[in-house]
Design a protein that fits this description.
The structure is a homodimer of 196-residue chains. Chain A is 71% helix and 0% strand. With 196 residues, chain A is mostly helical. Chain A has a single domain (3-186), classed as Tetracycline Repressor, domain 2 (Orthogonal Bundle), CATH 1.10.357.10. In chain A, helix 1 crosses helix 6. The longest helix of chain A has 24 residues, at 53-76. Chain A is elongated, with a radius of gyration of 19 Å. The relative contact order of chain A is 0.11. The interface between A and B is large, with 55 and 55 residues.
């Protein structure tokens, strides 16, 4: 294995170990020695790649953000979806990834962590994308009368964040069935019509 | 002021100071000296009332839970509300209280904090109540066909948790307008009907 390959592999192991530690214990309690040990890497190697815990956290956040971009790109390439189906599809992919991938889970988790006052870049990007898709849906008449794209975006963003937080602390929220339940409500309209 | 009154006042000041500290810095970073200083109380007085940070946190959680019970009781006494209007009313009251009262804010926040592995009693109670109200709504025909009370409960609980987390980290989510937006969606049904 050439030197660059080995360095890249060490870097990936450190990001993975950091993400598992941040997701499990919270950013503030995570220690660099615990992370290098979990990665099977010396403390010197950790410091060669990352100058601080903050630098490691930023690397986790960047990789999580790229994973989300890929989920969005792949859903957008599926043909024949309405805007709401596209949103549901991306949210489904995102929640599955949060359940199965510590990097994405930690990236989202740190974004809402009061002990880590970050840029909120991750959730801002998610909010912006959801808002954009729903404005297009509104323009093309895909939303019911009386429902604004803004209100729908608020609901989708709040539900995404809520599902993520609930899944982090309670395993009954990790099955993926909750995303289907949320979209069964969002796609059908929950109030009985007058006279129905 | 008699001795018991003074003790009760000190206890309240400590709970308030602890809640402000937990909500602002997170449970794990909060220090007992910072809390006693914020409360204007000696360290000895703090230890007289609370044997540990965990005991203080439990007092904050208990008081927050009682505040939520009062919000629910008061909404349930309002006449003429449908079940969904009752839920919207309670959620509105809860979000206003989270914005304005550090004890309720900290109580909810600690419930989703990975660094504090608590009993989740607070969010379990909220989930149970939301589920119960929606089962009654379903039984009485207040939900649209195809919407299960379970799916609606998941959506309401996820949205509540999401709004609370977003409000904690981003002040644009603190105005109360987001609750109205969520309920405008939940009460109307967001998908354009076929042929409409």
């Amino acid at each position: 294995m050439v030197k660059q390959e080995r360095a890249a592999r060490t870097r990936r192991a450190l990001i993975q170990a950091a993400a598992e530690t941040f997701a499990g214990e919270g950013y503030v309690l995570a220690s660099l020695p615990a992370i290098s040990e979990r990665a099977g890497v010396s403390k010197g190697a950790l410091h060669f790649h990352f100058e601080s815990k903050d630098a490691l956290a930023r690397a986790v956040e960047d990789e999580a953000a790229r994973a989300v971009e890929r989920i969005i790109d792949s859903a957008q390439r599926r043909p024949g979806l309405t805007r709401l189906e596209l949103l549901a599809d991306v949210m489904r992919g995102l929640m599955a990834r949060i359940a199965g991938d510590a990097v994405v889970r930690a990236g989202f988790q740190m974004d809402g962590d009061v002990t880590r006052k970050g840029s909120r870049a991750f959730s801002r990007r998610w909010q912006a994308w959801v808002g954009e898709v729903l404005r297009e849906a509104e323009r093309d008449g895909e939303l019911a009368e009386g429902v604004s794209s803004r209100a729908m975006a608020t609901t989708v963003v709040a539900a995404t964040v809520g599902l993520r937080v609930l899944a982090a602390s309670d395993e009954t929220w990790r099955s993926g069935s909750q995303v289907e339940q949320v979209w069964s409500v969002l796609l059908s309209g929950p109030v009985a019509r007058q006279g129905s």
